[in-house]
Each structure stands twice: as structure tokens, then as C-alpha cells.
Amino acid sequence: MVILITGASGGFGSELTNFFLNKGHQLILQSHSRDISINDNQNVKVLTCDLTKESEIEGFINSSIKSFGRVDVVLHCAGISKNAISWKTTLDSWNETIAVNLTAPFIINKLVLPIMKKQQFGRLIHLSSVVSQTGFPGTVAYAASKSGLSGLTKTMSKEVGSNGITVNNLALGYFNTGMIEQVPSDQIEKIISEIPQKSLGDPLAVCELIQYLISDAGSYVTGQTIPVNGGMYSY
After folding, report:
1. How many beta carbons lie within 10 A of that of residue 54, not counting itself?
2. CB contact at 8 A, 6 and 78
3. What is the side-by-side strand order in the sheet with 2-6?
4. From residue 120, how far is each of 111, 165, 166, 172, 221 by CA, in Å?
């Protein structure tokens, strides 16, 4: 499979890159700057792209398709959070967060769906957050952007379900990679105390879940926001 990973230099992006590279897939890795350390490998293409700019996204997708001739899976790992209490959040911070976390996935999906429809196969997977379900002080833009991914997932899944394409959303809890590295240690201890399993998650669990969702075995799972949070939140 040809797997496109946005935010490939981030915590989860790096974990997924290594996992699927070891599985023998061809990878297209998006980064804001060329800061991804990958040894020369004909199965990997690293491309830079500013996800706040539609023109750059269009160029990125065109280059991606030229790289391997197709795109089978898109893993939306790119995400930013500009922490500030609601009434102190600037419009610039709000707009940038929405642009990267919600608008970019919409544009990327919009551009790859015609290719996937022609292939009669595709997997779109968004990495969302438990914060979109529980809320968390100081994350108003982040929580809103991640909540939006749920609606995007539900609607797109109904539009392309007959074309062999699935669209899913993973609402991740707190893992020992990624944005947790920005959280002060005392807050991490408080977060862990509120997780029923009393530990941060292992990124491998997310990798294995995605492996299932992109396989034939996962072809009947679509339109879902799947909680992966150690019991921190349940419907």
C-alpha cells in the first residue's frame, strides 16, 4: 500500500512511519520542514508542505501521486495546539489551529478522494483527541478543531461508502509520545491519576489499530469516532 502520513516528524507521525516502514509499505511523509531522518529508501518520499496554505497542499498531493502513482491510505497526524483560556485566545491562534487540524484534512481528503474512487479503494484516518469529547481548560481552538473531525468523518464516510473507501476518526487519550511532551510533569501525574488504567498509552496500540482499519478485515468499519483512551471517556 501507499500510505501518506501528515505530521510525520511529530510523535505519532514518527511512530507510524517506523511501524509501517517495517511492514514494507510505500510511504509519503509530509513535514513543515525537512526534519525527518530517513536513510535512503526508495519506498519513502519526504515532501514539505505548509498545511495552512491551500496552494501548497495542492502541490503536495500532486507530488504525492506522482511519487508512487496512487494513494491508498491517508493518516492525518499533523496537529497543533496553542494553549490559552477561551477569552485570551487570539483570532490568529484560533484560525491557525483550525487551518492545520481541520481545514487541511478536509482539503487533503477532497484532493485524494477522486483517486481513491477510481481505485475503488481507500482509507482515510483522522487522529483526533479525547479532549474533543471531555473538554480541557485552555484548549478551546484545539478541542473545537478535533470535534470538527468527527462530523467530517461521519459525512465523508456516507459519501464514499460505495466506493470501497472507509473514513474513521481516532479519539486518542494520553500517550507517551506527541503533545504530552509539552505538558509539565505535575500535570502529567494528575492526568494519569484520572485514567482508569493509571498509565499513559503505548503508541503501538494505535499503530496496530490503524493496521486493522486499513486491512480487508477492517473494511466494514467506517464513519466511526473510535475512543482509544484507557477508559478515560466512554459513550
Report:
1. 14
2. yes
3. 44-48, 26-31, 2-6, 73-76, 122-129, 165-172, 225-228
4. 15, 7, 11, 29, 16
Average pLDDT, the chain: 92
Copy the grid coordinates of residue 158: 456516507
Under 8 Å between Cβ of 80 and 10: no
Per annotation, catalytic residue among 142, 220, 233, 235: 142
Q: Is the pLDDT of residue 40 over 80?
A: no
- 82/75 Cα distance (integer angstroms): 22
Backbone φ, ψ for residue 143 (5° rounding): -65, -40
* 212 is annotated as an active-site residue: no
C-alpha cell at 99: 487551518
Residue 113 near residue 161 (C-beta atoms within 8 A): no
pLDDT band at 39 (very low <50, low <70, confident <90, very high): low
Average pLDDT of the residues in 190-209? 90
* Separation of first and last alpha carbons in the chain: 33
pLDDT value of residue 113: 98
**Which residue carries 484560533 as its cell?**
94
Integer angstrom CA distances of residue 96 from 48, 104, 112, 169, 171: 18, 10, 23, 21, 21
As a whole number of angstroms, the distance between CA 16 and CA 140 comes to: 27
Q: Is the pTM of this model over 0.85?
A: yes
**pLDDT tens digit string along 224-233?**
999 999 998 8
| pLDDT score for 127 | 97
The per-residue pLDDT for range 154-188, each reduced to its tens digit, is 999 999 999 999 999 999 998 887 667 667 777 78
